[in-house]
């Protein structure tokens, strides 16, 4: 063996480390002639691999440099001071809703903004156009309940004409979905999230304080029938309310192309949030693993807020939205516009700027971009943590648009 690679020399130690990571199947320490020869072979193998690794690293750094120099630049207005590119916009179409979910709406309801102060369809489209021009490629319509807005189909159709917009999604409680989906699909709707927190009809009425379970189920089946895949089902998990249904929800994914998304219960004004009612992702995962130890983690996009799993052999999948126990602020690419026209750069931050007022005051495109850019630039690195959020003044979820 080359004396420079003797046991104990720094190079030997490095080689052992490399061997361990690159040739884990080969023996590590010599104790006989045969083993010496095997170690020698291992060293040669390792040196060869190390050279390959160095070459690969050099190539990677050359490619990074190339991408830095040649990548299409992303809008400076939509890039925050931590380098996050905001390419995903959520627009709330209404503050109204045909349900009264306990975790979203205070029992006494919310004071609604006068109609004249809500964004008109033209204003929504003007803003959407501006954001898409700057690089937003995904818009989600939300609310309140977006499918009670009378011109929702027309809004989707108009958005569909925007060049550069790749995804138009909607988050809905599903009540009006079966009726509207064929038209929405024709208009260009490409993604659907349907909220459903229980599979027990009587419990549904208790949670959402209204009837409608069967309509939601009908909406889910219509979405599957029309080929949406996966159909995302949003389930807010609350202790004492529906955490006993996790297994039933996952069982649904055996035969249906659903992505059941278990959402950690988040604090908003008036929703009586309490840490004891929140079921963390880890706890949910433990419960599921007891039933399906073979649950496998699936890869996800960098900006995804979901941790996704699948029971091997099942058609659908399940995800966790861990906003509380493991926030995903580091890769956040979302901006929100409320129904009354405020830009909100963080779901859990109370800083807002009225785009509506500037629009109505006749601001030019450049001026609007300046205002948007300044708000995005002020976006914090991460939210303040669940306990601070629960103490903070924010809007109720229904007035933000989830
Ligand atoms: C505010 S809703 C608006 C869209 C539509 N009405 C719906 O229910 O799907 C958007 C999403 O936020 C979720 N949500 C509302 N309040 C929440 C809370 N306190 N914690 C976690 N998710 C919440 C709802 O379950 C829903 O999936
Ligand atoms: S979660 Fe959706 S359906 Fe439920 S009250 Fe809020 S806006 Fe309405």
From TrEMBL:
GO biological process terms held by the UniProt record: Mo-molybdopterin cofactor biosynthetic process
Keywords: 4Fe-4S, GTP-binding, Iron, Iron-sulfur, Lyase, Metal-binding, Molybdenum cofactor biosynthesis, Nucleotide-binding, S-adenosyl-L-methionine, Signal
Cofactor: [4Fe-4S] cluster
Task performed by this protein: Isoform MOCS1A and isoform MOCS1B probably form a complex that catalyzes the conversion of 5'-GTP to cyclic pyranopterin monophosphate (cPMP). MOCS1A catalyzes the cyclization of GTP to (8S)-3',8-cyclo-7,8-dihydroguanosine 5'-triphosphate and MOCS1B catalyzes the subsequent conversion of (8S)-3',8-cyclo-7,8-dihydroguanosine 5'-triphosphate to cPMP.
Quaternary structure and interacting proteins, as annotated: Isoform MOCS1A and isoform MOCS1B probably form a heterooligomer.
PANTHER family in the record: MOLYBDENUM COFACTOR BIOSYNTHESIS PROTEIN 1, MOLYBDOPTERIN COFACTOR SYNTHESIS PROTEIN A
Name of the protein this chain belongs to: Molybdenum cofactor biosynthesis protein 1
Organism (species): Myotis myotis (Greater mouse-eared bat)
């Amino acid at each position: 063996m080359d004396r420079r690679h003797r046991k104990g020399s720094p190079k030997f130690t490095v080689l052992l480390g490399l061997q361990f990571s690159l040739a884990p199947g080969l023996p590590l320490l010599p104790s006989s002639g045969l083993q010496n020869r095997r170690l020698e072979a291992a060293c040669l193998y390792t040196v060869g691999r190390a050279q390959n690794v160095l070459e690969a690293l050099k190539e990677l750094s050359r490619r990074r440099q190339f991408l830095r120099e040649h990548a299409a630049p992303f809008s400076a207005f939509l890039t925050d001071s931590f380098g996050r590119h905001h390419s995903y916009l959520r627009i709330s179409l209404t503050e109204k809703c045909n349900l009264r979910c306990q975790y979203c709406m205070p029992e006494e309801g919310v004071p609604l903004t006068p109609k004249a102060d809500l964004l008109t369809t033209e204003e929504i489209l003007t803003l959407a156009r501006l954001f898409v021009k700057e690089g937003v490629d995904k818009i989600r319509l939300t609310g309140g309940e977006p499918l009670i807005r009378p011109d929702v189909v027309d809004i989707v159709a108009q958005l569909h004409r925007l060049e550069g917009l790749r995804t138009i999604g909607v988050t809905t409680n599903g009540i009006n979905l079966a009726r509207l989906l064929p038209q929405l699909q024709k208009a260009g709707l490409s993604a659907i999230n349907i909220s459903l927190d229980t599979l027990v009809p009587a419990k549904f009425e208790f949670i959402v304080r209204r009837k409608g379970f069967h309509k939601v189920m009908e909406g889910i089946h219509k979405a599957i029938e029309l080929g949406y895949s996966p159909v995302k089902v949003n389930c807010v998990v609350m202790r004492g309310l529906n955490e006993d249904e996790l297994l039933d929800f996952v069982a649904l994914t055996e035969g249906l192309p659903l992505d059941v998304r278990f959402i950690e219960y988040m604090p908003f004004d008036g929703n009586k949030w309490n840490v004891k009612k929140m079921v963390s992702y880890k706890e949910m995962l433990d419960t599921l693993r007891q039933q399906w130890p073979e649950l496998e983690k699936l890869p996800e996009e960098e900006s995804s807020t979901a941790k996704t799993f699948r029971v091997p052999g099942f058609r659908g999948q399940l995800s966790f939205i861990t906003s509380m126990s493991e926030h995903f602020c580091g890769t956040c690419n979302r901006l929100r516009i409320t129904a009354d026209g405020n830009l909100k750069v963080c779901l859990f931050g109370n800083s807002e700027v009225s785009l509506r007022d500037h629009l109505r005051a006749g601001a030019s495109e450049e001026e609007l971009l300046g205002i948007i850019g300044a708000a995005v630039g002020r976006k914090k690195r991460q939210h303040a943590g669940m306990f601070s959020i629960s103490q903070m003044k924010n809007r109720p979820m229904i007035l933000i648009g989830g």
